[in-house]
Automatic annotation (TrEMBL):
InterPro entries documented for this protein: EF-hand-dom_pair, EF_Hand_1_Ca_BS, EF_hand_dom
Ranges of biased composition (kind: Basic and acidic residues): 152-181
The protein's name in its UniProt record: EF-hand domain-containing protein
Source organism per UniProt: Durusdinium trenchii
EF-hand domain sequence ranges: 213-248
Secretion signal, residue range per the UniProt entry: none
Organism domain of life: Eukaryota
Stretches that traverse the bilayer: none
Keywords: Calcium
SUPFAM superfamilies hit by this protein: EF-hand (SSF47473)
Region (Disordered): 152-184
Length: 252
């Protein structure tokens, strides 16, 4: 997939531009493996082998229905880019069918207590391997990014809490302990960094529920919510359908 992404960037300025071009040539629906191959071939793209093509198609067709969407293919190609930031990590997880909550909880074996457990770089990397981030260079980049955000947040809190001497002293004590044993971070720190670049995590869960109910067809989901067939969905229509079909509360 990384090699295919490189080939795309040799012909187009961005991956987005490439897929906007492809989508003009394809129907706005799920397509078969043969349709995908024929469309890409028209633009001069050939798979390295039939096995590579089938492997990538099967990753997209995770429900084994024999069809995929070009949007899903676009996300997968983008997610093949190296993870060098928290934004890259979010993209990788979405392409891997994780919500942010699912990925974070997988990293801590579904234990909320483990969210505050401190990890060295090596330990943090082993946790990332559980959620489709396998390259040691990606581990280092994310570790440093989260550490930077944590240190920046700590300085902001000290600036805003000058009267809270006990809190500041406790923070400084934590910093000394970390320096004595080398830098360390928690998965909770990673979750906080993700929250900066992600929409509310509830939206990630909603996306996951819609994916499952409508087999990834968001146009069908929108049509289902458009009760009066006006071409738009108001708050009342959205609330009624989401509560009834996805079992969220009115407050959610």
């Amino acid at each position: 997939m990384e090699e295919f992404r490189t080939k795309l960037l040799e012909k187009f300025t961005t991956i987005k531009e490439a897929f906007e071009t492809f989508m003009k040539d394809l129907p706005e629906r799920q397509i078969t493996k043969l349709e995908l191959a024929r469309s890409l071939a028209r633009f001069g793209f050939e798979w390295q082998s039939k096995q590579v093509r089938d492997s990538i198609f099967d990753r997209l067709d995770f429900k084994s229905i024999g069809r995929v969407t070009m949007v899903g293919f676009y996300v997968l190609v983008e997610a093949s880019a190296p993870v060098r930031s928290v934004e890259d990590l979010r993209r990788r997880w979405l392409a891997s069918r994780f919500t942010m909550t699912q990925a974070i909880m997988t990293m801590v074996d579904h234990s909320t207590l483990a969210l505050t457990h401190r990890f060295t770089l090596h330990e943090f990397g082993s946790r990332l391997q559980l959620v489709n981030v396998n390259d040691p260079e990606e581990h280092l980049a994310l570790f440093n990014a989260v550490l930077h955000e944590k240190e920046k947040d700590s300085k902001e809190r000290e600036k805003g809490e000058k009267g809270d001497f006990e809190r500041i002293r406790r923070d400084k004590g934590d910093e000394k302990r970390e320096k004595g044993h080398g830098p360390s971070i928690t998965v909770g720190d990673l979750a906080a960094a993700l929250a900066v670049v992600s929409p509310c995590l509830l939206l990630e869960d909603l996306r996951d529920k819609l994916q499952k109910r409508y087999n990834g067809d968001f146009k069908k989901a929108f049509s289902d919510m458009d009760l009066d067939r006006s071409g738009s969905v108001n708050e009342h229509e959205f609330t009624v359908k989401i509560m009834r079909n996805l079992h969220l509360t009115e407050h959610e």
